[in-house]
Amino acid sequence: MGWMFHPIEAMPAVPRLTGDLVSDPYYRWLNAHFLWLQLPLGLLLFWIGTATGAGGWALVLWGIPLRLVVVLSRHLACELRHPLLGKRRLRQR
Fold it and tell me: 48 with 57: CB under 8 angstroms?
């Protein structure tokens, strides 16, 4: 897990590669507050778990990590599959 604490070398290229997304205030807000967006989901899962008798904290502790694993694994699956299925090769610099 040490890789998470090192600076990312590609960060200077992000504005050049994602100019339209970086300039959009909505996506900048989502990027800045993505951790706080877990709070309403956690509260909703806690309420549903308490109301149904499934256990509020059990749903929170399963729901949020499970959602993150599903989303990240789908993202990585697409990221790994697209270069294999594409018709054009990326230009190497």
Answer: no
Q: Taking the C-alpha atoms of 67, 71, 73 and 77 in order, what is their torsion angle to the nearest 10 degrees?
A: 160
CA pair distance 29, 8, nearest whole angstrom:
21
If you ran DSSP here, which 8-state letter would residue 2 be given? G
Q: How far apart are CA 3 and CA 6, in angstroms?
A: 6
pLDDT band at 48 (very low <50, low <70, confident <90, very high): very high
Q: Which residues contact 54 (CB under 8 A, 6 or more apart)?
A: 48
Which residue type sits at 62? W
Are 22 and 28 in contact by the 8 Å Cβ rule? The answer is yes
Task: Tell whether the model's pLDDT for residue 41 goes beyond 70.
Answer: yes
Where do the domains of the chain lie? 2-85
